[in-house]
Amino acid sequence: MRTLKLTIAYDGTRFVGWQRQTEGVSIQGLLEAALGRFEGGPVVVHGAGRTDAGVHALGQVASAIVGCGHEPAAILKGLNAQLPPDVRVLSVHEEDAAFHARFSARAKTYRYLVRNGPLASPFERGLAWHVPEPLDVTRMQAAAAVLCGTHDFAAFQSSGSTVATTQRTIRSSVVTTSSAATACSPSAGVAGLLLSYEVTGDGFLRHMVRAIVGTLIDVGRRRLSPEVMVSLVEGGSRAAAGATAPAHGLFLVRVDYD
Amino acid sequence: MRTLKLTIAYDGTRFVGWQRQTEGVSIQGLLEAALGRFEGGPVVVHGAGRTDAGVHALGQVASAIVGCGHEPAAILKGLNAQLPPDVRVLSVHEEDAAFHARFSARAKTYRYLVRNGPLASPFERGLAWHVPEPLDVTRMQAAAAVLCGTHDFAAFQSSGSTVATTQRTIRSSVVTTSSAATACSPSAGVAGLLLSYEVTGDGFLRHMVRAIVGTLIDVGRRRLSPEVMVSLVEGGSRAAAGATAPAHGLFLVRVDYD
């Protein structure tokens, strides 16, 4: 048996999320079906991150144990021939038997896009959260920087979650902006800024990135002070943080391994 | 009566094109219906360029003669409230009675996006033409530059077209590239380059930009030499040029008036 590492990009708009469910189309389900045709039998595909419905990936990683003898390049080509155009396998590599996409992951990077201006772009409908009110980006950048380091992120966890610990280590947490009109971007056409929040950490609680973004936007709108982040990561309550930002602005950018 | 100038952005993916047709949804039809509700009666909206099915706009311009007394800002807000999210009115201005979106236009700028790499991005499905073969961009840039000036563009016109003259003046004709991964672009996720061809001219023949792009790609693939452009604009035949590139990579970027 061989262990394969798959790197995958997808537009999450029309899917129920990464994870296989009884109803609706999942990315895991599509990959398992496509890989199962190579294998001639059922295959389980494990993803590094279980992205929710509407969440996208630029570099999701999945692992699968297979018996088939095809070259990785042939598997890559065969999978893409079977998958719909909103899911693309970017690479297939053979790994050690110990490799597991989720348990071997050392860090993940997420990006969240916010269109800030009076109008939503017709080209970003499922890809960026439209926030029409003016945002103070400098305040948001100060608040984002507070999250770096090891903290208790319980205030940014969905209610009802049960995990062993809510402590996580964030390596990088940065808000950047770009103007709407770039030479090669079809996203232009509307005034305003495209804000990008990018965060790298050893792990994330359920809906954590979206709760951070909701809080950053409240800081940008001056509903919360940047200092609120300090108290939130020192044992603050979920209610003291901002609302969970919508799923469709979120991208799983990259998963790092040793 | 007042003459309004509307600037409009749209994702052309699901439309039959700008122009009202007996079947299917057109951008002109949507705007006429939305403006008609302000007017309380039928309104005709004239577009600067009749974009085909699948073609997008970042700055299409339209004119309409109306009797209603609403402020332009109120019309802008009201139109966007009625229109679907893949069509946005960016601005509404009152113009002289002589203004006509099509006949007053002095220049138009189109952009065509090409994803050049082994895989198509899941985020660019309807927005860029995927060309997997390696392209020689320097050859394409040399060929694009030949088009500047006043030439006979009959070789880039759809067969069956009947226009008074096939002479047009091109002010700018440039191929640029950007790498796949930019900080704020969700288009990343695949390797390769995003090529952008941008052309400004006083007017364009039917399918002219797409025929130019098809020819540029054949130059980039080394099926045609860059010098072919010289003979094409000196009375070459349609058959000597490249095939018409698909509609979905094309954007009407801007329309200029005096």
Give the helix/strand class of chain A.
Answer: alpha+beta
Main beta sheet of chain A: strand number and arrangement? 10 strands, mixed
Strand segment tally of chain A: 10
Ranges of chain A with pLDDT <50 over ≥5 residues? none
Oligomer: homodimer
Strand % of chain A is 25-35%
Main interface: chain pair and counts: A-B, 41 and 41 residues
> Helical segment tally of chain A?
5
> How far do the termini of chain A sit from each other?
22 Å
What can be said about this structure in brief?
The structure is a homodimer of 258-residue chains. With 258 residues, chain A is of the alpha+beta class. Chain A has helices spanning 27-39, 72-82, 137-145, 208-220, 228-232, and strands spanning 2-10, 45-47, 56-66, 87-95, 107-116, 129-131, 149-152, 167-179, 193-201, 250-256.
Protein model, in words:
The structure is a homodimer of 258-residue chains. Chain A is of the alpha+beta class and 258 residues long. Chain A has helices at residues 27-39, 72-82, 137-145, 208-220, 228-232, and strands at residues 2-10, 45-47, 56-66, 87-95, 107-116, 129-131, 149-152, 167-179, 193-201, 250-256. In chain A, strands 1, 2, 3, 4, 5, 6, 7, 8, 9 and 10 form a ten-stranded mixed sheet that branches. The mean pLDDT of chain A is 93. The interface between A and B is large, with 41 and 41 residues.
What keywords describe this structure?
alpha+beta; 10 strands; 258 residues; homodimer
List the topology elements.
The structure is a homodimer of 258-residue chains.
Chain A: E1 2-10, H1 27-39, E2 45-47, E3 56-66, H2 72-82, E4 87-95, E5 107-116, E6 129-131, H3 137-145, E7 149-152, E8 167-179, E9 193-201, H4 208-220, H5 228-232, E10 250-256
Parallel strand pairs in A: 3-10, 5-6
Antiparallel strand pairs in A: 1-3, 1-4, 2-3, 5-9, 5-10, 7-8, 8-9
